Amino acid sequence: MACCTGRCILFFILVLQMLVVVERQVFDFLGFMWAPIIANFIHIAFLIIGIFGAFQYRSAYVITYSVWCLVWFGINLTVMSIYLEIDRLTHEDDWLSLKTGHKSWWAENGIGCKTESSNDNTDSPTNGCLLHFTYVESVQAAAECIFAFIGFWLGCWVSRSFTEEDDHFDFIGGFDSNSAHHPPSKSSRMQMQPMYIST
């Protein structure tokens, strides 16, 4: 496999997507965000299908992965709009944890946040974080959107190249119109081939 073929680039994108989604899955498990956990598991399954399809030159599997990339793009746009509170969507509605009352792990363990001990011996993050948790979650979703967009177009291109490279040479009968795989029609007779016997 050449280094800069579409198939090799697709493998690279699939591996990057797998790393990003596993990282995201770990932090979603830490925060008990059940809707993203379920979606990440489904995405991992489609990534495995895409890897198998690219490895085995199966264009149907690569097309399945490409179609899923469109769905995954929409899911991550929704997550971004929930965390950035676009229109009426807000993370306070608790849809991402499926109404269990859990919050994102990043909300309590933000990047650069310093915790202050209150009188009841619980640590609570202050507002002096370097990056607010909604932006961290939105950046993760944006990275997934970028990978899904690239994966969709690359998957379509690779699956098309698989069908162009596929030649259906009939090794048994060659290019004969009356080969073993194509029985003669009712009106024609079988062609007789001379046999040569060496003595």
Automatic annotation (TrEMBL):
InterPro entries: Na/K-Atpase_Interacting. The keyword Nucleotide-binding does not apply. It is found in: Cell membrane. One of its GO terms (cellular component) is plasma membrane. Residues 179-199 are annotated as: Disordered. It is a multi-pass membrane protein. Keywords: Cell membrane, Membrane, Transmembrane, Transmembrane helix. Belongs to the NKAIN family. Pfam families: NKAIN. The chain crosses the membrane at residues 34-55, 62-84. GO terms for biological process: regulation of sodium ion transport. This is Sodium/potassium-transporting ATPase subunit beta-1-interacting protein.
